[in-house]
Write a sequence for this structure.
């Protein structure tokens, strides 16, 4: 028997997790954010249930402020997998015109955190797959693979269940739900290596290309459409940039780069010296901010 | 000292580098020790030397080090791995955290668990998936009680590679004799408990000595570096491949009428297309027709792989079954002896029904009173009646149906289980199966010729168990007596089992602790079942405060024969009546564990019949119950 490589071992573990949830939950759903981690998670789901299509829908909690290229790939990927795609936009945030320029942190809270809770309640999903990894951030290092949420979606770090061997306890009371993270044990490098090995399609924004940009507080932002509010005298400059992580385009920092192939991207990542989350503006406030967001129900 | 440098290939030929790095193996290990032993510092050092730390993290780390760090000069690596905000402020890690790094040869997943006595649960959790354990010792303190505890737990969880990292060697001037003495002492301990001989390293987490590079401070040490050792030890998975094939079925894949695949993760051994296999527990045999994956069919699959098998014959097989090599089946039994680690604040209640999950199957299980517990500090065997949080004990486990399994020593995935509380759904214990109990095979049910149907038919009635539950003084016995009189008048054959009366005889040996209450109800349930077998309508009047026990009795009887009758009386009313004067005594502290005062009453959520005594006289209540019971009677078969 050949050795099981680390990528194959991670793949097998993730597939096992996906199947366990489908076997034990009543209404599972996969949160699909269109990023590279979501792309890997979706690919694993297709493998786990082959030749059947994954027996659950995809849910995109939309903020209306994602990059245009993300919306394009989203619809195509769902169709290719033969899965239903549900898109939820918080009607309250939509009515109030919540946007990243005027509302700062409230933008993320209302569109993403509240939007996610609304969508889960609306469809009565009792288990939601998410693409979070333990290596992303310190507070995530202790997150279980099966993470329980109260009926009001709160996460209590003291009340999480021990996880032993490959045994996952998915039982829950009515109203409670589980977030399940099949990529818990993957690192950023694993994700990239796996995308390369499997030939998984990802949003072109991960590769360098000349794009219109402005620099604010040292962060390079892409001017993706005409909703971007330029300051007086600010003129978009074309730079060769790419993104290490994708979210709402006015909140996502780019890096200057010449990496146009997967090999280039991985090379740059291995030689680079800043961690992935630095590109996300929301984490900068305080060092325990992710943990606070999580307790409030942020994925 | 030499740390890990980024591979020159990354810059010069990324394609060649990626080719080389796609085929690493994966080692999971556990670190045991307290903050004082420098455990977090060692992990921080491993991450740092493997370049798993980025500049922005390093900047945050430097800032944190100045703010709350414990190292007066330089970087406090421990801050890198101490996770949640509340814990960081307390200065201790209190949970299992997972870290990742990779070297040229392997990827590593580190389970970081605390060393404090009260956190046995966390260490056991981290150890369950580990191939190797690093046990840290402070060179100034040597082998402590805690060190032996870590060794014992690592061995209990079946970890075959033990590393003894003697840390802070710089603080004892790299004293070889002191090091040798520590290694010898721990080695003797390992032998005494039957643990694999540890591999020892003299290190300094702060300075990095003998971690990534050999140290100039220890010319007398000729072993490899710690990282070299981690890169080369044998993986559990490689060992699991050599056993007999076994795959618990997790999901049956039926996309259309022509395809029926059994999806699972291979727990042990390997399988090839054409191999003869057996489905357990049924024992039916077939052959593997295909090994299906998204990437095309495979000729073979082995331990650690998640695959989908199709079989040549139409055999019954569903989630929870185990497909095994036909010639090498697993034990199938409904009773076994196991070592149990209790993980919940609420102690084990022997006799209470829990869910037991093993592989992909979940069955109802009860744990008998422990044969003994083990003091993790002295390793002495203790005589105990129950297991509390972080206790480890040996006990017999009884299941409501047989399941396939292997002893834990032979397979972690086929011999490990968890226990789940049926009400809170919490994972309350981890268990390791030692051996099946022969008793399970030897005591056969006597097949009786006069069946329960025959008994019932002779009496012209359908057997029932009317289970009255409610607070002391709620009126259970009063109403139950009235119901029995009415049934008697209707010519029905009945029997009333009263709580107080049973406690004078059958259950004379039981008190009122939670464990004794469970046993009390279990015995009453069994007696009531025998009486229904005899065709009787049985009435019971017990406080029976716990939902789990009432459900346990319900499960003993055929569907529809158990009727839960909730005599709902407010505690203020029951206390005011206080027919037996018990509430007054309980309030005075003369009775311990009194339901409603010092012990909980879990009201039925969906009783079959609820009697609100504030709105109904006992006579009317009895009438209502009899009407319901008579109305529900179906014709006798």
């Amino acid at each position: 028997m050949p050795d099981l490589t680390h990528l194959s071992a991670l793949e097998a573990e993730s597939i096992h997790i996906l199947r366990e949830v489908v076997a034990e939950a009543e209404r599972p759903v996969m949160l699909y954010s269109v990023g590279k981690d979501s792309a890997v998670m979706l690919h694993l789901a297709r493998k786990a249930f082959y030749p059947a299509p994954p027996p659950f829908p995809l849910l995109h909690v939309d903020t209306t402020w994602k990059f245009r290229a993300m919306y394009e790939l989203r619809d195509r990927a769902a169709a290719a997998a033969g899965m239903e795609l549900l898109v939820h936009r918080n009607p309250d945030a939509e009515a109030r015109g919540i946007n990243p320029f005027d509302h700062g942190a409230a933008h993320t809270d209302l569109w993403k955190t509240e939007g996610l809770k609304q969508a889960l309640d609306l469809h009565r999903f009792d288990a939601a797959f998410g693409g979070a990894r333990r290596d992303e951030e310190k507070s995530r290092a202790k997150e279980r693979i099966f993470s329980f949420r109260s009926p009001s979606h709160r996460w209590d770090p003291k009340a999480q269940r021990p996880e032993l061997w490959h045994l996952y306890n998915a039982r829950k009371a009515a109203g409670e739900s589980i977030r399940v993270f099949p990529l818990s044990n993957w690192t950023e490098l694993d994700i990239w290596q796996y995308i390369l090995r499997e030939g998984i399609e990802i949003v072109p924004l991960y590769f360098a290309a000349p794009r219109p940009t402005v620099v604010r507080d040292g962060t390079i932002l892409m001017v993706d459409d005409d909703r971007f509010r330029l300051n007086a005298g600010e003129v978009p400059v074309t730079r060769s940039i790419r993104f290490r992580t994708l979210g709402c385009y006015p909140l996502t920092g780019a890096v200057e780069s010449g990496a146009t192939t997967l090999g280039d991207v991985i090379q740059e990542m291995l030689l680079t010296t800043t961690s992935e989350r630095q590109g996300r503006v929301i984490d900068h406030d305080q060092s325990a901010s992710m943990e606070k967001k999580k307790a409030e129900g942020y994925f | 000292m030499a740390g890990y440098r980024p591979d020159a290939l990354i810059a010069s030929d990324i394609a060649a580098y990626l080719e080389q790095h796609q085929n690493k193996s994966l080692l999971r290990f556990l670190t045991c020790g307290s903050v004082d032993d420098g455990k977090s510092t060692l992990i921080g050092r491993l991450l740092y030397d493997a370049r798993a730390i980025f500049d922005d993290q390093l900047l945050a780390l430097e800032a944190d080090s100045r703010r709350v760090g414990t190292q007066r000069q330089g970087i406090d690596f421990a801050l890198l791995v101490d996770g949640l905000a509340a814990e960081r402020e307390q200065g201790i890690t209190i949970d299992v955290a997972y870290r990742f790094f990779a070297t040229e040869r392997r990827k590593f997943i580190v389970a970081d668990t605390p060393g404090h006595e009260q956190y046995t649960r966390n260490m056991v959790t981290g150890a369950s998936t580990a191939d190797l354990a690093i046990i840290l010792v402070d060179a100034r303190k040597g082998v402590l009680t805690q060190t032996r505890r870590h060794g014992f737990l690592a061995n209990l969880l079946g970890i075959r590679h033990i590393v003894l990292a003697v840390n802070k060697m710089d603080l004892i001037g790299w004293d070889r004799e002191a090091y040798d003495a520590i290694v010898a002492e721990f080695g003797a301990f390992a032998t005494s408990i039957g643990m694999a001989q540890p591999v020892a390293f003299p290190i300094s987490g702060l300075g990095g000595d003998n971690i990534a590079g050999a140290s100039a401070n220890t010319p007398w040490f000729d072993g490899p570096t710690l990282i070299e050792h981690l890169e080369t030890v044998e993986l559990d998975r490689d060992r699991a491949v050599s056993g007999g094939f076994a795959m618990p079925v997790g999901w049956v894949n039926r996309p259309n009428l022509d395809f029926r695949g059994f999806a699972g993760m291979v727990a042990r051994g390997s399988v090839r297309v054409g191999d003869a296999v057996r489905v357990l527990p049924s024992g039916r045999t077939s052959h593997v027709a295909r090994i299906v994956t998204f990437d095309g069919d495979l000729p073979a699959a082995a331990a650690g792989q998640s695959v989908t098998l199709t079989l040549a014959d139409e055999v019954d097989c569903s989630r929870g079954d185990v497909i095994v090599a036909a010639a090498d089946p697993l034990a199938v039994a409904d009773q076994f002896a196991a070592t149990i680690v209790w993980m919940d604040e609420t102690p084990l209640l022997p006799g209470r029904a829990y869910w037991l999950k093993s592989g992909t199957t979940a069955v109802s299980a009860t744990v008998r009173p422990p044969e003994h517990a083990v003091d993790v500090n002295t390793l002495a065997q203790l005589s105990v009646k129950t297991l509390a949080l972080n206790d480890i004990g040996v006990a017999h486990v009884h299941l409501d149906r047989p399941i396939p399994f292997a002893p834990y020593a032979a397979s972690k995935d086929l011999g490990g289980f968890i226990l789940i509380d049926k009400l809170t759904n919490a994972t309350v214990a981890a268990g390791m199966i030692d051996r099946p109990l022969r008793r399970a095979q030897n005591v056969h049910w006597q097949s009786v010729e006069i069946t329960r149907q025959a008994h019932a038919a002779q009496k012209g009635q359908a057997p029932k168990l009317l289970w009255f539950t409610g607070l002391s003084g709620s009126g259970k016995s009063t109403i139950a007596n009235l119901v029995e009189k009415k049934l008697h008048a209707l010519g029905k054959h009945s029997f009333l089992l009263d709580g107080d009366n049973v406690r004078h005889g059958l259950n004379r040996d039981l008190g009122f602790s939670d464990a004794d209450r469970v046993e009390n109800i279990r015995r009453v349930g069994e007696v009531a079942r025998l009486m229904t077998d005899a065709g009787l309508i049985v009435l019971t009047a017990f406080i029976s405060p716990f939902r789990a026990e009432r459900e346990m009795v319900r499960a003993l009887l055929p569907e529809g024969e158990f009727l839960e009758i909730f005599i709902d009386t407010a505690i203020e009313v029951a206390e005011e009546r206080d027919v037996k004067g018990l509430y007054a005594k309980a309030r005075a502290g003369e009775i311990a564990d009194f339901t409603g005062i010092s012990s909980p009453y879990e009201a039925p959520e969906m009783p079959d019949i609820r009697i609100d005594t504030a709105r109904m006289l006992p006579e009317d209540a009895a009438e209502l119950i009899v009407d319901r019971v008579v109305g529900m009677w179906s014709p006798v078969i």
About this structure: Chain B touches chain A through 82 residues (CB under 8 Å). The two ends of chain B are 86 Å apart (CA to CA). The CA atoms of residues 44 and 77 of chain B lie 5 Å apart. Residues 1-5, 88-93, 440-447, 633-637 of chain B have pLDDT under 50 and may be disordered.
